[in-house]
Amino acid sequence: MATWFRTYHAAEDLWLYFETDDEGWATRQVEVRGKDSRPVTAASLDEVLHLRDHADLPAMGRYERQYGVLAEAPLDGWRDQPRAAEISAAEFEHRWIEARRILGASG
């Protein structure tokens, strides 16, 4: 079962939004700068796995430059992170769509 939540990374002034699978791995991730609300990451596990299996390293590099890097470890302790809160699927989807629109236009 998917879980959606957000945390805050104060050192970089970033809001991090995650969709995780039932084992706690990120399936989609959005990062938004706090100062101007500009998305800097909107990465998807399905897309990363597709590129890994069907593309080359330059294609993966282009993806990471455009959409950022997905968390590479289970996110088990997220409830202990600053300003952590569970969010609705609809809120995550809104953030995802907006981030992809902005980052997709920049690529």
Could you characterize what this model shows?
With about 110 residues, this protein is of the alpha+beta class. It has one domain (about 5-105). Helix content is about 35%, strand content about 30%. It has 3 helices and 5 strands. It has helices at about 45-55, 55-65, 90-105, and strands spanning about 5-10, 15-20, 25-35, 40-45, 85. A 5-stranded antiparallel beta sheet has the order 4-3-2-1-5. The model has no long low-confidence stretch (mean pLDDT about 90).
Distance between the termini: 32 Å
Low-confidence stretches: none
In N-to-C order, the SSE pattern is EEEEHHEH
Number of helices: 3
Which features would summarize this protein structure in a list?
107 residues; 5-stranded antiparallel sheet; alpha+beta; globular; 36% helix
Concise summary:
This protein is α+β, with helices and mostly antiparallel strands and 107 residues long. It is 36% helix and 28% strand. Strands 4-3-2-1-5 form a five-stranded antiparallel beta sheet.
Please render the helix and strand layout as text:
Elements: E1 3-9, E2 14-20, E3 26-33, E4 39-44, H1 45-54, H2 57-67, E5 85-86, H3 89-105
Antiparallel strand pairs: 1-2, 1-5, 2-3, 3-4
